[in-house]
Amino acid sequence: MTETARELMRALGGKAKVAAMSHEQRADALEDFDISKLDAASETLRETHEWPTVAELDARVDQRGYRRGVGSLFRNSSYREAVDPPLPEGKVKRLKKMPEAPTLLDFFDARFAPSAHLLQSAALANRRGAAEETVLACLLHDMGGYLMKSDHGYWGAQLIEPYVSEKVTFAVRQHQALRFFADPATGYEYPVRYYEAFGFDYVPPPYIQAAYDYTRNHKWYMEARLVTMNDLYTFNPDIKIDIDEFREIVGRHFKQPKEGLGYDNSPVAHMWRTMINPDAPL
User: Fold this and answer.
1) N or C, where is the chain less crowded by C-beta within 10 Å?
2) pTM, full prediction
C-alpha cells in the first residue's frame, strides 16, 4: 500500500470503516480527500512559490515555438500546457475520423481529448446537486479552448449558442471573467495556477473587469459562478469519468441537429467543421 493510500485509509477511519462503505461512498470519500489534498497543496504553493511577473512572461514570447492562445487541436502540447516546451519533435497526433453526422458525444470521443477536466467538472456539479443545465454548462465550459484558448469562454458560448438555453450560454461565456475574481461568500478563491499562467502581478484587462461587473449584478450570476466553483478542483488525473454519465442530460438540454454538428447551416457550423478537420489547408 502506498503512503497516499495509507493516508486516505487513516482519514476515512481505518480499514473496517472503509470495508463497510458502498462503492459510491468510497468514490465520494476519495474525491473529498483529493480536494482536501489539492487545497493544502494550493495553499503551500501560494505561500512558497516564486511566481513570474507579467513582464517576465512577456519576455518568453519569442522563446517558444507556438502561441499560447492557440486552441489545443492545433497544438502539440496538452490542453493544460503540462508540456512546455512542446512534445518531442513538435509532432501532432493523428485524429480519429468523425462520423458523417457527428453528435456532441462524438466530439467528446474524437476531438475533446483529453476531456477529463470537463467530465470531472460536470461530475462534481452533479454530485453537489446542481441543476441539469448547470451540469451541462460545466461539461461545456472550456470547450472553446479546443478552437482558441484566448477568450475561450466567448468562443465556447458562441459554439453552443444555437443548441442550448440562453442560461447555459451565459454561464459558459461569463465564467471567463468570473475566474479572475474571488467570491468568499461562495468559497471561490483566485486560482493559484493563474500566478504561473498570467504572472503574480497580473491585472485583468478592462473588458474582463467590465464583464465581471455586468455578471455580478445579473440574475444568472450564480449560474456562471457555479461553473467556476466546479472548475477549480477538477484536474485530477486519477479520477476517471465516462461521458455516458451525462448522456441523458445532453439529450434533454442540447439540441442535436439531425444533419450533424457542422452540417446544419447554423451560424457556427463552420466552427464545428474546423474541429472535424483541423488539418485542412484552406
Assistant:
1) C
2) 0.79
